[in-house]
Amino acid sequence: MIQILNATAVHNRDAYGAALKTALSARDLTANISSDIPGDQVDYIIYAPNGTITDFTPFTNCKAVLSTWAGVDKITSNQTLTQPLTRMVDDGLKFGMVEWVSAHVLRYHLGIDAQIVNPDHIWDQTTPPLACERAVTILGLGELGQACGQMLAQLGFNVTGWSRSQKNIDNITCLFGPDGLKQALATAEILVLLLPNTPQTDGLINADRLAQLPRGAFLLNPGRGPLIDDAALIEALDRGHLAHATLDVFRIEPLPQDDPFWSHPKVTVTAHVASETRVNTAVEVLADNIKRSEAGQSLNFLVDRDLGY
Fold first, then answer.
1. Over the stretch 108-166, which tens digit does the pLDDT of each residue have?
2. Of residues 104, 107, 224, 244, which has the active-site annotation?
3. Pair 58, 81: CB distance under 8 Å
4. Which string of b and e fits 29-47 if b means at least 16 CB within 10 Å?
5. Cα end-to-end distance, the chain, whole Å
6. pLDDT one-digit tens code per residue, 231-245
7. With 0-12 CB in 10 A as exposed, 13-18 as middle and 19+ as buried, what is 175?
8. 224: annotated active-site residue
9. At CA 147, angle to CA 110 and CA 70, rounded to 5?
10. What are the backbone angles phi and psi of residue 226, rounded to the nearest 5°?
11. Contact by Cβ (8 Å): 71, 197
């Protein structure tokens, strides 16, 4: 019998245990799934950074640590982790992110804020441009970035994507490297940040790169809080270079009550709700990976710890 340590957050633990048992049974696998298994008996760890495990040294026979989160920056630096690590890539995360990004891009594109908050009752019949006349740039072309880019392209937007290395994706102008980043920023009327949090991306969106955006650009960050230099963003908003920013992730979460983002008239704060792992879709990914491992096959979504994702 496969021994699976359930190290998800306490509030999700029962749901993950029951759903994963069902998913494994559908794949003809039998497992003991528990939050209390002796370390040397554990075959797999279902892990969440907001769970309780910080020391992986007792799990000497563990075949893999399977994270339920898309981001792995909170675990890759853990020196006790020597086991293979996978990240979560599932339809629940993907579709949730696509919906959030598409909604806020359309919100900015159509100027919806001015119609919802209109205390002077201004009758403004200015017609917004069509989507094909609006340039959207996505920084980060992983699973989520690609999915968001494809949806925005289907809506008609002129989509540019940037990544660390070269990619070719239908309906997206793909750029890479330092020169590509400058080009991607220069045309970004709406900028979407979906990069992982690594030493290379920490503070990537600083004063210099914000200045490279077209005047009046909008910024969306559903990716990682540390991607942005917060002070530089506020300065760019204050001097009118950026029109507005919608931020879903922050360096400190929950965002402190006295943080200036809360009260800034050109900032919309959402409480890290752009997307989340959904148990019913996540367990299918976990069960598939366990089945692959038990069959001697390579794991899906294996993390490269040198790259940090």
1. 999 999 999 999 999 999 999 999 999 999 999 999 999 999 999 999 999 999 999 99
2. 224
3. no
4. bebebebebeeeebbbbbb
5. 31
6. 999 999 999 999 999
7. buried
8. yes
9. 115
10. -70, -5
11. yes
Tokens of 25: 């049974």
- The reply to whether the predicted model has a pTM over 0.85 is yes
Q: Which two tokens stand for residue 140?
A: 């980060």
**Cα(65)–Cα(293) distance, integer angstroms:** 12
pLDDT < 50 positions in the chain = none
The single residue of 272, 278, 292, 305 carrying the catalytic annotation is: 272
Torsion angles phi and psi, residue 302, rounded to 5: -70, 135
User: Per the structure block, which two tokens stand in for 110?
Assistant: 């159509």
For residue range 32-45, list pLDDT tens digits in order: 999 999 999 999 99
Average pLDDT, the chain: 97
Give the containing element (helix H, strand E) for 304. Answer: none
Residue 272 bears catalytic tag: yes
